[in-house]
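Deliverable D4.2, example record:
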Amino acid sequence: MSLRKSKLDLLVRVRYSNPLPAPPCPPKLLDIPTNPLRYAQPAFINAITNDTPLPMIVDAECGMPLDLGRWECLWEEDGDDATLNPDPDNPPSLDPKDRFLLGDPSASSAPYINGSIPTASGISTPLPPHVPWLRKTEYLSREGVQRTPSSQESKQLLQPIDVSHDAQLRTIEAGFAACTSLDLTTLSHPNKTGVTAVESYEVLPDADIWANAYDLFRFSERPGERPVDTEDPRLDCAILRPMESDGDHFLAYYLTREDADALEFKDERLAPKRGEEIRATAFHFVRDYETVKIEQEVPNEFLLVLDNGDTGERGPGAYYKNIERKMTLKKKRMNQSDTYADKWQVVHISHVAMSSEEIEERNEALAEVVDPLYLFSRDAEGEVDADGEVDVGGMGADGGAEGDGGIMAEIF
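Output generated by the structure prediction step:
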């Protein structure tokens, strides 16, 4: 019992220790040498003054009574309000004690001016930024530096800005002049030292493919069941068909059996044969893919073609087309019992001429980049179609049909 009690006492003394502070004054019956100056310090009674409440009696008017009965215009309907609204041409006399309130604050009189601290020399230094204590110090030095505008910049800010139609045209033309007189040797690569520009292109929308909707697909592994180092010409003409089974959405992937069929199909798409027998290309089912991630907005990725103008069909330039969506796909688990309706094993695709409705729809999409008065015509019609409201029977990985024809599919 004594052993347990000693351990318990030790624990109690450690956990609940209550050390007494040193006495402010030595006991009267003991002669302890002390410095008399410690009693003359103002900080000696700080603890007492902090604990002593200040007696304050504040009335309802906070010590500033205002007798509203002196102004009859506040209570009478047709009273004279000249005493409340003095004449601005003949203002009343100001008390000399209040005259300093009308002066502009200066660095010598105001402690803080526009977030700065005045110094003895009259130059105000900016206050340090208020940041949370969890911020890293490497960001504080960047944010703490406040750029002081020079006198020349302040004069430019005060100058009036001409926003008339002629002034805007002059500003736009000056921008074109700056581009034409630009020296390419002065442009260097942002990451590679010593690499400079050798040629410039005008960035223009690609009218040849602007009517097509392009999606970017990323696979978790290479499709087609071929090694990575083996060339597969079938991949750039694959077919992706949207599917649904019990509320689950996925994509069915189709490829040609032989490489020659894929090459012939791509040649036929680039230069369709007129007036000859339509030849269909067979695409066979490979497997199903499920979407892992879908990005509806892709502002930083687009199709870009650098054309030197060798063909003579259009001038040289960098022609671009935006990407509608970006998807990440992975293989869907295949189960023997996983059967769904409307499953196609083989799809025969051939080239057919576009109908009048398809041509009209394509011309409406091209008017965005071909017709200079496109915005005015849309405002006049008062109808703006929503994005993504085009019914598509199938979805191709290569972006859709060309301008002079469409795709016809036969299912077996």
